[in-house]
Request: fold
Amino acid sequence: MKMHPFAKIDLLEMDLMDLASVVAAAKHFLAIETALHGLVNNAGIMATPFKMTKDNYETQWQTNYLSHWVFTEHLLPLMRQTAKSLPPGSRYGPGSPSARDGKGEIWLLSVHPGLVETNLGESIAESGSMIVNGVFSVFRKLGFFSNADEGSWTSLYGVANWDMKAEQSGDYFEVHRRFGEPRWQSAAAKDAKLAERLDEWTREEMKKQGWVS
Ligand SMILES: NC(=O)c1ccc[n+]([C@@H]2O[C@H](COP(=O)([O-])OP(=O)(O)OC[C@H]3O[C@@H](n4cnc5c(N)ncnc54)[C@H](OP(=O)(O)O)[C@@H]3O)[C@@H](O)[C@H]2O)c1
Reply:
C-alpha cells in the first residue's frame, strides 16, 4: 500500500474452515464481477493440533486443500470465459491482477515460497514439536529464512510476470530456484493417476455434501 496508495483493493471474506462461507464468497464474487484474470490460493495452516471443522473434515485438510478446491471450482467457469476472450498469456490493464490465459486455457503453477518468516511459524512453535522447532531455529540462525515480500515472488511470477510461458503451466516452482526452473517433486506429487483419484473423490464428496453442483 505504501508503494501503490491508490490501488483499488476489495476484500472478500471467507473462513476456509467453513465451506458455507467459501461458497457464499464465491457466489458473491460471481454476482459482482464479470471477469477473473488470476487466482492465488495462498491461505494455509501448518502443524496445527488435530481438530475437525464444523463441516467434519480435518482442519488442515480442509483449509489447505478442500476449501480452495471448492472456491476454485465455483470460479472456474468465469475464469474460462475470461480466458476465451483474451489472447494467450494475456493480462489485464497495468496494475490490475494478471491473467494467465488465452484460447480458453488457464495456466497454473504450484509454488513453494521457500522458508519465509511469516505467522506460520507461530503454529509450528505452538505445536510444541521440539525437533521441528529446533530445526527451524537453526535455519533461522543460518539466515535461510526470507521475508514475506520474497515469499510472494513465486505466486507473483505465476500470476503477474510476462516471462511465464504456456509450457511452464503445470510446473512446481520454488522461490530460490531460477524462475522457470521446476522444483524437485516427490513421486506421489507426480502421480497423475493419484491426482485424478483425488480429484474424483473430492468432486463426488463435495457434490454429495452440496458444496458444488
Ligand atoms: N512460511 C513458509 O515458510 C512456508 C513454506 C512453505 C509453504 N508455505 C505456504 O504459504 C502459504 C501462506 O502461508 P504464510 O507463510 O504466509 O502463513 P501465515 O502468515 O500464517 O498466513 C496464512 C494466511 O492464511 C490465512 N488463513 C489461515 N486460515 C484461514 C482460514 N480458515 N480462512 C481464511 N484464511 C485463512 C490467514 O488469514 P488471516 O491473516 O486472516 O488469519 C493468512 O492470511 C500457506 O499455504 C503455507 O502452507 C509457507
Notes: The first helix runs from residue 19 to 32. Residues 14-17, 42-46, 63, 112-113, 115-116, 118-120 surround NAP (CB under 6 Å). Helices lie at 19-32, 59-84, 120-127, 130-141, 148-151, 153-160, 192-208.
